[in-house]
């Protein structure tokens, strides 16, 4: 398995060199013209070269070190009983499965050979640090700065760096997130770097169309700063057809389509899974979902111009973003060609969100909108489209955003055994009242949202005041949904008398879609190691003042 | 609401006259050329004519009386304290909402005016008996011969018939089910008239393709006896196009398509809902589902020949069977035109089942196969196809085969408030071991099936030996499923060691489809008054011999 990772690592490091003195615009060009990964062809030359030690300095120069350096200072001062001492050269020679995989954090050295395959972010990400310091990556993926991650790492400690070595991994320190846009203060931030945030529930269902500033934001990397004048979308043509290189003006010439579409992160409501058992992922509550009116060109029109026709062949349309990690690897994902070419599926290359150019956090200047499909496929800052016989080889397509049985853990997971999440299951949640709130006796007004994947309409929302013993039917608000194209949510509410003498209410909601799919009763049987697809009945406990 | 029923009743009675001396083949012609219902135009002449009394004799002549006559004899001998006595003429004058709606059973007279709207089979069915005897209908729908139905009827008793009147409703008695085909003795019969039966679970999953003789049978009416030489399928043409009148040979000339498709009755596993609270419907266990290889012409090809093209308009394709009730009303159902015209949806007009001409119980000579959709839309003995701006007005489309909240009962149900069931939700069940079985300690082999509607593939089946606390993943057998066209089930099995010391096992299964929809944990929150869509986790309790 690890052998398969060599070539991407090499490609990544080569790109890192190219990045040394590039502007972010240059980075865009690198990503958008880069060949897709071919991990099935490992490079025989990797182990012998000295790319890695030089690579780290380059990458370090591009990355900030943040809080990780504080940890470094602290650990270096702590005494240890004659730890084994290694030079940086020794560490850098351990960067492959054959030699063992070592990394450093501050002055400490770790042998993570056994851990690589279990790295929650995927082995390829950890391999980027093989033979060198973790700091540049922990700076990028700041959620590593947590006690349980450090504890886990401590198990693999084998010694310390030679104190005579300069353990500062970089000379030039910059913050890759320094150019991120400013955000609305109402957003509840789950992670600053990369930026991930959700609107508070009361604001979420105040409007059928979510205002742009509070639309939930799910970034995997720093936000690229793209120049609309020089922006180009590269579309690899069908055999016998020319590839397209489309400017924004070129995209505007395609017929403009507008649709209301709800986007939901696969991790929406993950925090409820965490209560069952720890999972890896951001602690989304009920707000990793929002609805906007998107406008743009139909992907089917653009693909037709590039020479693609609907055929029986099961191909995939791969998207690459212009948001790059330190190696120049772009965010990527794919959808089936059949969906992309089906005009009824209404897949958009969107350049407007609620009548405005896309905000930077939402993919300026162009993103994919795949109605009825998990947010992870709506690739932002779109740079490249290609049609391939296989799904995208991106980490986010192959090693993430998949659902597993509750019995599967990081030791047993086989990512190839589950399909990538595309259409999402039926979902609903209560946004008012809030969990733990105290209400007056009399009537209680309960509000929330409901949505299902694949264009399936919401036909009913049942609400219970007694934990699911008896049910009332909520009133559906917002726009009517179109048959087979119910891309946007229904908001709902129920006004119900509080049963006399009741001091507490266990309010529960569940939705039904037009395939009569329902939500599962409880969270535990749907628990999975990544905490995705959390769609059990949603409940809030409230108190009634006498 | 009742006013809306007049015209169908008249149409029905008129047809009953035509039936007086017809063969079943003539009945076919009547059904297949009959206009569809227009219940929005009540006839002002209904109340004044005398169709009804004459009609009963005709219908009685066509129908057997079965067990209902025994009840009649018994009740007439029972003494009553001077009951009010009515003549048959008086009864027959009460056949509309204006006059009140009376019916008789044996010598007893009932005023069912208030009950008509709550009749589980639909008001129109009960209105067929307005002003006359129930026997001809109870003979056709034999499940009425149950104590709780008689008790319910007794509440509406207003008197008795004049003993001088001849209470035998017919002179000629025949059994409309006398020509039904012979069935395989392995089938577990839920109802003889109409015939409804399922294979035992062990046989069900013995083969990926269910053998024809044990394929579950769901009939609503007697099985028509159709002559393949004179059989004609009437296809109403698009505006500006000729209607088609297709013989079997004409159908054979369309390209022949073959696909494996699982059919499931909406009422599969209803018996589990009955355990929560009484529902109206046949007591299906886990066997109202089977899989066959169907061959026939594509509906999209036939509709194209009749001049239909894919458009945005939300029309419906209405099907009428050649199975008629006493009034000549055919079984009917509809599907959206978008599905019918989509070649990817692969809707068939099937004339072969597992390489044989369709068996009579399964629609000989032609039935509709709508992959991924509830069995009720796969109209058998297909006589007529029309494209309409609205769904079929059939009882089975509008007043049945819909799902409601557990809080809805027969007093509060609004059938228009829920969509007709089309695609079904994800489903799975255990077929081995059987509930209550005793197994040896050591290993237990658990088998079952899993399927989802809409062409969604089964990606995983989880099995628990401890009622859902811990899970193991079953092995999927049978053919691989195609993306988006997973029309046929997956069989599955799990061999697992029985935990040491365990005396009982609570085995549970749940399936996940490729939209990551899951089955609900428990039955009660999905309970509905018709007992359809029963897809909670399936469980069997077994004993382990020491």
UniProtKB/TrEMBL annotation, chains A, B:
Residue span(s) of domain Cytochrome b5 heme-binding: 83-162
Keywords, comma-separated and alphabetical: Heme, Iron, Metal-binding, Mitochondrion, Molybdenum, Oxidoreductase, Phosphoprotein, Transit peptide
Sequence intervals crossing the membrane: none
One Pfam family linked to the record: Oxidored_molyb
Entry's EC annotation: 1.8.3.1
One GO term describing the cellular component: mitochondrial intermembrane space
Self-association and partners: Homodimer.
The protein's name in its UniProt record: Sulfite oxidase, mitochondrial
Top-level taxonomy: Eukaryota, Metazoa, Chordata, Craniata, Vertebrata
